[in-house]
Structure formats: C-alpha cells, structure tokens
Write a structure and sequence with these properties.
27% helix; alpha+beta; 19 strands; 334 residues; six-stranded antiparallel β-sheet
Length: 334
C-alpha cells in the first residue's frame, strides 16, 4: 500500500529538503528584508484561558522601524497604541459653506498595537480624494492590507473626499508600514509638520464640557475635541482591542466666530442603540451623513454614524448630549 511504502522511507531521506526549506525561510531575515504582511490564524500562542490575546505595553523606541518606513514619527496612546497622524493639509475642502480644517474631519491616522503573541495589529482611517481612491486601494491590496469600510464623513463637500478604514494583522509591522507608505505615496498626503503651540479657541469650552460631561482638548488646528470610548471590552477576532482603538465616539468643534461652531461627529453604537442615537441627533438638528461599520469581525459588532451640525457651540453640545447618553460610553482617558 502507498501508506506502507511511505513508512519504509528513512527519516534522513527528507533531511536535505528540510534544510533547503529552512534556509529559504531564513533568507529574508538574514538579508534584512521584511516578510510580506499576511493574515494570521486564530488561536495563536499568547492567548488567555478564554482564547483571547491581549495587547502589551510598548514605547516609542519599539516602533523606530515603523516610523522610518512611514517617513514620520508618531506618538504613544495609553502605552499600547503607536499612533501616527497624517492630516490632509494639502486640501482645501468646503462642506456646506464651511472651510473644513484638517483636524475637524480630514485627519488620516494609523495605529499599531503589539500583542502578547508577538503579532501586531494595524488599524486606521485614511482620507483620500475620489481621484486617489482606486489607486490607493490597489496598492493596499498589493501589500495585503484590508479595507473594512469606505465611506463619507461630510456632506456636499468639494473636492469629493472618501474615508478608508485599513486593517491588517501580521508578525511584520515594518512590512505593514512599508505597504502603507507605498499607498500614501499614491496620494497627495503631505509630510509631517512640527507641532504648533496650542491655539486659543473662540468657543465656550467649559460650557461645552459641562454640556457633554467630558473634558475636551485642543489640537494643533484649534479644533476642540470631545472623545468617548465604549465601556465594553471590544474584540477583533481573538484580539482584545485597547480602549478607543476603532471604537470611539468623537465630537469635534471648529470655531466659526461669535461662539458658533461647525461640529463633525461620530457615534459608536451597538445595534440596539442605533435608533435612539439617530433620533437624538436629528432632535439636535444634526444632519446625518453615514451609518456603517468600521470593522468586520469586532464583538460586540459596532455601528457608527457620522453627523454634521452648525450653531452655537454650547447649545449644540447640550442638544447632542442625549446621543451620548443613549450609548454605553465614558469619557476617554488621556
């Protein structure tokens, strides 16, 4: 029988072949080349008794190779997320008569998280023009970086802008970063600028904080940001997501003068919360832009709605508070 003949072959007969295969596998490492990104199987080493793998703390020094590959330096969020912002400062975008500052709704960003099994998760949200969209996606495909959402944050914008959520899981974060860089190079995404001093904001930020029940912060563009995270533990496959990674509710205020603001926001919801949030947003006079998912395998499965509103900043914050209260969120930690 064929099975009997296989048993008669001495184990040494396969040794040279195994050596050749091993040498071939090691060759990229010996030459300093990063292996291509690829999807990893579930149930990897490092999982806890429930089969879940948790993120581990890292420092900026752990991500030097990623920073070099991306061509810019990021920062650490909550000691577990290596975050890099790539705002589209090259674009002049107008939505409903408002010139949109990059930090209001044009802030591409990508985050890398290291896990207990030694793997790395990449997640991000990238701003591209409609002309850039297809080439950008094609390059992501070449580097095995997935797209989990393609959608809009703004209504009636010129030029036409799209937002692409990127996702990958690999043992080779530098390869992921190189793939991202190749895709970004197909767009007009500009190089990083040095951080600017915090700008004064022509808004009653204390009033906004009190109305929403959160302590906001000002970014380089003078955008006032109020961020919430889901209370639940969110997982992506067998990976536990750090609080805020792909699961934030964000209320961004751009001052328009005289206490007025344009608000571009995003609410993270589970299915049973969606109806109440949409009703609350419309009750606040907000225009609904999108209802969609950011992830494919997250649990609980999250939905997101993007919205737009213009008016007195504090009054808008008060009107938007029911949308916050309709979801299971808490203010984000620093």
């Amino acid at each position: 029988m064929a099975g009997d003949r296989q048993q008669e072959i001495p184990s040494e007969a396969g040794t040279p072949r195994r050596r050749v295969l091993a040498a071939a596998a090691l060759a990229p490492m010996l030459l300093g080349a990063a292996a291509p990104a690829r999807a990893l199987p579930f149930g990897a080493a490092g999982a806890d008794s429930s089969g879940l793998v948790k993120p581990v703390h890292t420092a900026l020094s752990d991500w030097r190779g990623v920073a070099r590959a991306l061509g810019r330096t990021g920062d650490m969020k909550r000691k577990v997320m290596y975050h890099t912002g790539l705002p589209r400062r090259d674009l002049l975008v107008v939505s409903r008569g408002v010139v949109v500052k990059p930090a209001l709704a044009l802030g591409s960003h990508v985050s890398f998280v290291r896990y207990a099994d030694g793997s790395t998760l990449l997640m991000g949200d990238v701003v591209v023009t409609e002309e850039e969209l297809q080439d950008f996606i094609d390059v992501l495909h070449e580097h095995r970086i997935e797209q989990t959402a393609i959608h809009k944050h703004l209504l009636s914008q010129t030029p036409d802008i799209w937002w692409v959520h990127v996702h990958a899981h690999s043992h080779h974060p530098v390869a992921l970063a190189r793939g991202l860089r190749a895709a970004f190079d197909r767009t007009g995404t500009p190089p990083a600028l040095p951080s600017m001093p915090e700008q004064p904001v022509d808004l009653d930020t204390r009033g906004i904080d009190a109305a929403l029940g959160v302590k906001g912060s000002v970014d380089d563009d003078g955008i006032y940001k109020c961020i919430f995270v889901r209370r639940e533990t969110i997982t992506d496959g067998h990976l536990v997501l750090p609080p805020g990674l792909g699961s934030t509710s964000a209320f961004n205020f751009q001052a328009l003068g005289g206490g007025r603001a344009a608000v571009s926001g995003d609410c993270a919801m589970i299915a049973k919360e969606v109806k109440d949030v949409l009703v609350a947003l419309r009750g606040a006079g907000a225009a609904l832009v999108e209802l969609h998912n950011h992830g494919l395998t997250d649990k609980p499965h999250l939905f997101f709605t993007h919205f737009w509103a213009v008016g007195d900043g504090v009054r808008l914050a008060r009107a938007l508070r029911p949308a916050v209260d309709a979801t299971n969120v808490v203010p984000a930690a620093g």
